[in-house]
DNA sequence: CGACAGGTTGAAAACTATCAAACATTGTGG
DNA sequence: CCACAATGTTTGATAGTTTTCAACCTGTCG
C-alpha cells in the first residue's frame, strides 16, 4: 500500500548523518509518509506520540498552548528537519501542536521502529543528542531575549531568524517563504498582533520591510540587524 | 594527589543510571573533584569547556549574559545534578557562567574522558539524551511563561519551582535552602529587582511569604499556587 | 565605626496591552 | 460574476503594568 519512497529523502537529515546506505534504506522502510493540507494538524498537544517526524516538504508550525489558551510558537519546521521527537525521551505525549502552514509531506516513525533503529545504530542516538542539545541552546537564547529585550528588538530577531531559515531572494529584498501572519509573529515574540502590526507599519514607512497579508519581505536586512542589536540606526541606503 | 573518592557519589545521578559498579568506579576515577567557595565561578561563558560537571554538594547558579550585559538565570543546580554538559554536544564553549551561590563541591570530567566513557557505555548517551530532552521541555515551559504571563505570576512560578527543588520545612513554612537575592529572582523571571521587591512586600503583608536578606520562606504555598495558576485568591487560613 | 551589599518605597515615565472601530483581501455560494 | 462572510490587518484612544530614577533604609563585615 505504501507508495515507494526514495531513500534519498533522508540524505542530509542530521538525525541520520553517518548512516550507511543500507541503514538509510532500513530507516526509510520503517517510516510512514503522510500529506497534510495547509491548516491541518500533524499532531496535537497531549496526544500519545509517534516517535518522530521528519518534514520532506512544506512548512510546519510547532505551537504550545498554555492552561489559559495562550499560545506560543516554539518554532517553524522546514524540509529536512525532524520534529515531535521530544516526546520519546520524556513522557510519550506531544508537548505541543504541530500545524501545517503550507501543504506538507511528512514521514513518521512509530515508537517501536525508532527505538529499534536507535538500538541497532547508536550513531542515531548521538545525532539526536546533538540535535536536542542545539535546540536547547536555541530556546535558552530565545528565553534570554524574551526576558530582557523589548518588543521591537524581539520582533527584529524573530524575523531575522525566519530569514535565515526560510529566506528567499526576491527583487526587492528577502522574502520569508511561507505564510506568516501578524498573530504568528506575536506568538513567537510574546506580544500581541496589534503591537506587531504597529511595529511592521513603522518599519514599512522607513523602507525596512514590505509586508502584506501573511507575507513579509525584508528590504534592508542590515537595518533590521541594527535594530535587533540595538545599534545606532544607519543613515545610508542599505 | 587526588583525594580518594567514594564511588557512591555517583549513585542516583541520572546520567549514570543503569551503570554497573565497575563502570561507576571507572567514571569516578576519571573525574576531577574541586571545591568552590561561595561566590566563586565554576566556569565562565565563552571559555573552552570541560565535558561535564556534577555537583556533589552546595548550590550553583547558571547565568547567561547577553551582549549588553543583561543576565538571565537559567537554573540553579543542586547536589546530584549535572551541569555544563551542553557544550560537548555543540561548539565546545560554555554557553553561560556557573557561579557557586553556596560553598560547593563539584566533579568534572575532561572532554576526552567523557567521550571515552560514552563510547564504552552507550547507556550514558541514552541517559544524556533523556536529561537534555527533559531540560528542553522545562525551558520551553519557561519560555511560554515569560512570553505570556505577567510578572507576579512568573515570580510565583519561580518560587514554587525553587521550593520543589530546594525547599526545606521550617516552623513557619517552607524555606528556600540557599541564599537567593531579589536580583536573582528578577533574573529568573525577566523583571527587575524593584518589581520583585514590591511583589514580595505585597505577599509579605498578606502573610503568604516571609523574606529577608537573600532568604525566602513560603508560609502559604497554596496561596502562591493560586497566584501562579491565576485562581481566585483563597479566603481561609492556609 | 564606616563602607557596602542588599532591600524598600515613592513618583514619574515608558511601554505595551486592551478596547474599539474600520479597512482590505480572499474565497465561496448563490 | 457578485455579494458576503471570514480572516487578516491597521490605527486611534485609553488603561494598566512595569521600568526607571531617586532616595533612603538596614544589617553585615572588615
From TrEMBL, chains A, B:
<dbReference type="InterPro" id="IPR018490">
    <property type="entry name" value="cNMP-bd_dom_sf"/>
</dbReference>
<dbReference type="InterPro" id="IPR012318">
    <property type="entry name" value="HTH_CRP"/>
</dbReference>
<protein>
    <submittedName>
        <fullName>Crp/Fnr family transcriptional regulator</fullName>
    </submittedName>
</protein>
<dbReference type="InterPro" id="IPR036390">
    <property type="entry name" value="WH_DNA-bd_sf"/>
</dbReference>
<dbReference type="InterPro" id="IPR036388">
    <property type="entry name" value="WH-like_DNA-bd_sf"/>
</dbReference>
<keyword id="KW-0804">Transcription</keyword>
<dbReference type="InterPro" id="IPR050397">
    <property type="entry name" value="Env_Response_Regulators"/>
</dbReference>
<dbReference type="GO" id="GO:0003700">
    <property type="term" value="F:DNA-binding transcription factor activity"/>
</dbReference>
<keyword id="KW-0238">DNA-binding</keyword>
<feature type="domain" description="Cyclic nucleotide-binding">
    <location>
        <begin position="15"/>
        <end position="103"/>
    </location>
</feature>
<keyword id="KW-0805">Transcription regulation</keyword>
<dbReference type="Pfam" id="PF13545">
    <property type="entry name" value="HTH_Crp_2"/>
</dbReference>
<dbReference type="GO" id="GO:0003677">
    <property type="term" value="F:DNA binding"/>
</dbReference>
<dbReference type="Pfam" id="PF00027">
    <property type="entry name" value="cNMP_binding"/>
</dbReference>
<dbReference type="InterPro" id="IPR014710">
    <property type="entry name" value="RmlC-like_jellyroll"/>
</dbReference>
<dbReference type="InterPro" id="IPR000595">
    <property type="entry name" value="cNMP-bd_dom"/>
</dbReference>
<dbReference type="GO" id="GO:0005829">
    <property type="term" value="C:cytosol"/>
</dbReference>
<feature type="domain" description="HTH crp-type">
    <location>
        <begin position="149"/>
        <end position="222"/>
    </location>
</feature>
Amino acid at each position: 500500500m505504501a507508495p515507494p519512497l526514495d531513500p534519498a529523502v533522508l540524505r542530509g537529515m542530521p538525525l541520520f548523518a553517518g548512516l550507511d546506505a543500507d541503514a538509510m534504506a532500513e530507516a526509510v522502510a520503517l517510516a510512514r509518509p503522510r500529506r497534510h493540507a495547509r491548516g491541518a494538524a500533524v499532531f496535537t498537544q497531549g496526544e500519545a506520540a509517534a516517535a518522530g517526524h521528519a518534514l520532506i516538504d512544506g512548512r510546519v508550525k510547532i505551537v504550545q498552548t498554555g492552561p489559559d489558551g495562550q499560545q506560543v510558537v516554539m518554532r517553524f519546521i522546514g524540509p529536512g528537519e525532524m520534529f515531535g521527537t521530544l516526546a520519546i525521551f520524556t513522557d510519550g505525549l506531544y508537548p505541543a501542536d504541530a500545524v501545517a502552514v503550507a501543504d506538507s509531506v511528512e514521514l513518521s516513525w512509530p515508537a517501536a521502529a525508532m527505538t529499534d533503529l536507535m538500538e541497532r545504530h547508536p550513531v542515531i542516538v548521538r545525532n539526536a543528542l546533538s540535535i536536542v542539545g542545539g535546540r536547547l541552546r536555541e530556546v535558552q537564547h530565545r528565553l534570554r531575549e524574551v526576558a530582557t529585550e523589548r518588543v521591537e528588538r524581539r520582533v527584529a530577531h524573530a524575523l531575522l531568524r525566519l530569514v535565515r531559515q526560510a529566506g528567499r531572494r526576491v527583487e526587492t529584498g528577502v522574502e520569508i517563504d511561507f505564510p506568516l501572519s501578524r498573530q504568528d509573529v506575536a506568538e513567537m515574540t510574546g506580544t500581541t498582533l496589534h503591537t506587531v502590526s504597529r511595529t511592521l507599519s513603522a518599519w514599512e514607512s522607513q523602507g525596512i520591510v514590505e509586508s502584506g497579508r501573511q507575507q513579509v519581505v525584508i528590504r534592508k536586512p542590515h537595518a533590521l540587524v541594527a535594530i535587533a542589536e540595538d545599534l545606532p540606526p544607519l543613515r545610508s541606503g542599505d
